[in-house]
Amino acid sequence: MKLENKEFGFDSFAAEMAKLKNEKHFDYLVTVVGEDFGAEEGLGCIYILENTDTHERCSVRQLAKKVGEESVVPSVCRLWADADLLEREVYDFYGIKFLGHPDMRRLYLRNDFKGYPLRKDYDMDPAKNMYTTEDDVELDTTTEWNLDKNGELVGTPHPLFTDDNFVVNIGPQHPSTHGVLRLQTVLDGETVVKIYPHLGYIHRGIEKLCEQFTYPQTLALTDRMNYLSAMMNRHALVGVIEEGMGIELSDRIKYVRTIMDELQRIDNHLLYTACCAQDLGALTAFLYGMRDREHVLNVMEETTGGRLIQNYYRIGGLQADIDPHFVSNVKELCRYLRPMVQEYLDVFGDNVITHQRFRNIGFMSEQDCISYGVTGPAGRASGWKNDVRKNHPYAMYDKVDFEQVTLSHGDSMDRYYCHIQEIYQSLNIIEQLVDNIPEGDFYIKQKPIIKVPEGQWYFSVEGASGEFGAYLDSRGDKTAYRLKFRPMGLSLVGAMDKMLCGEKIADLVTTGAALDFVIPDIDR
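Now predict its structure.
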């Protein structure tokens, strides 16, 4: 969608945002984009909101106010819970302090990191801004910033722990946290009291790189964020660029992209079911999922040449046409997979131990899922109909018949079942399209130097774990002025404290497994 930003002014911003939430029912905060708008306007944020009843979306632009040397914006974390981590991310990379936010610490970078690297004037000289080899400074307190009656910025310290707290680090070792994620967990005996996520262990500055790369060069980075949603990630990026350029795609391109997206979704969900089993110690079920995932990758590899990193979508179409055997191989894969899915339930999903570990664990209500931005199967397990393919159709999704899988218990068990049922729906989508792929161009030729007209756009897709979006601010050049990705996993990790408060520490591992986050997607 092309953004037509509302602007309220600094003094009325908080009240107007509350009206959008409470009176106009924009109850889903999709993302917060920090941006350096240039020397004249300075720093600020773009807020993208959705009304979950009508699926209408709007965007709000708010410039930061200068208070001395600092830039400040009122926090909205008391209106939308997912703003907690989203605002901390903006603070980490731009240095904007959010007034009233109770925890203004860095989220991705070390506490001793100097400067804010996504600002346009950030000095990239490694001699001045190099990481040290010293241990990072561990903070026991955080700061809440506000303006006093004189308009001066004042900080109120808040302790993170009490003397009686027992703190355990879950991660950042890879097992059970599905990557280098550190969850600083406060315990009372075996009961979880609080979870503080620490991110950025595999942060590669992808959004900063995108400001220096040409548009075709940025495409290679999307596959490396969530390698289990590589197709969908790149679909979002080429989608926002194509929308900005006004490119009309052939039906053949749309058909193939839709089929590839669903093959990638099956790939992810098979690995998900396998890893859920492994995290609970069920190795046989893990091997079943990995066995069948190989068949999916074989079909994709014949056309794309890749297995983990696909590199298939281009601006204007596809890297190459489908393999001559693609249609027959996809149909054979569908016939093979349908009866196999039941095996995962027979061996693991309907096992009494699985039910005891998953049932009523990590509960989230529908309203909490909306507030925390828990999209994808994790949110649909609570009854929230958040599927981007239905609410904001793209490619061929408005032309195929499939069900949006929603369940009602909102626990880890239903999140697992939601993934299982979505495999069947993906097979349904593929089978409707694969016999009807039309003739036509697989690539709409573009100019050697691709430039996007001036403007701001946001394009989202239904990734394997939720909504994945790409925000583009173009100044008419061959590189993006600002390219921001909405990761699927950040809001999932941000909701773990809400899900697990009062649960046992053993439930943390199973809840994380059922959420289905991938760390490079969160870190970028």
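The chain has a mean pLDDT of 92.
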